[in-house]
Design goal:
single chain; mainly alpha
Length: about 90
């Protein structure tokens, strides 16, 4: 059985080009693509805490709670993800 490729950071959420139900959907693939953004957006709209709760509401870079989940999905989570997504892979 092949192992999943390692991820490349918090914005690497799924395999590029996959859709719900496909093998690899939800498995990091060591690249940050538009598929990761779509995957996160779907989870954010659905309020999926396991994927879309990334940071504390109302925090900004430099705040000690920036990047600390707070059991709610908010616009701050979306902003945080977009920043990670733009940064891409380390």
């Amino acid at each position: 059985m092949a192992s999943e490729p390692p991820g490349c950071g918090p914005a690497d959420l799924t395999t590029d080009g996959t859709n719900p139900g496909d093998t690899g959907y939800g498995a990091p693939d060591a690249q940050v693509t538009v598929t990761d953004l779509t995957y996160f957006a779907e989870a954010w709209v659905a309020g999926d805490l396991s994927i879309a709760d990334l940071t504390t509401f109302g925090t900004n870079p430099g705040d000690p709670n920036y990047g600390v989940p707070d059991q709610q999905v908010s616009v701050t989570d979306l902003t945080y993800f977009v920043e990670l997504w733009i940064a891409g892979c380390p």
